[in-house]
Amino acid sequence: xxxxxDTLPDATFTVMGENGPTTKTTAxxxxxxxxxxxxxxxxxxxxxxxxxxPGYIDHADEIKAKGVxxxxxxxxxxxxVMAAWSKASHAEAIEFLAxxxxxxxxxxxMSLDLTERGLGIxxxxxxxxxxxxxxxxxxxxxxxxxxxxxxxxxxxxxx
Length: 159
Ligand code: BEZ
Fold this sequence. Notes:
It is built from six helices and nine strands; from the N terminus they run E-E-H-E-H-H-E-H-E-H-E-E-E-E-H. It has helices at 26-30, 46-58, 60-64, 79-89, 103-107, 152-156; strands at 12-17, 20-25, 34-40, 70-75, 95-98, 111-114, 120-123, 126-131, 134-140. The longest helix is centred in the first third of the chain and has 13 residues, at 46-58. Bound molecules: benzoic acid.
């Protein structure tokens, strides 16, 4: 699993642009910037939709007031699902990153096998504070059905 002091691996995410799906690299998102990123097991799943994402929406201004330029959520979902989740959540303050084939999630050691629950390979619930591509803080939720250690309030206390 990725740890404090590591540089994020090169990866490409799919994002929804004005004219449809497009891509962003880790350099596009992290180079020269302070970024908070949190990973979730799935768009619209109970804890992700009811607790984890709403916390970051509610606290986005406070997080950005600490010098964070981007708050991003990443999930092993396709870009259309991620765009629908953003729209349904009125989450304009958050950047939605689709890691549909789990390449980034696997490269940082955060994959989670939920095959037995019918979800396939997904992401652990995690949060990170990253400065210019280098991990400053990393938090892993022990219980995937909770968003305490990885929630916005816990992240704010670490910034
Ligand atoms: C949840 O969001 O609560 C959740 C997502 C995937 C697996 C288990 C729980």
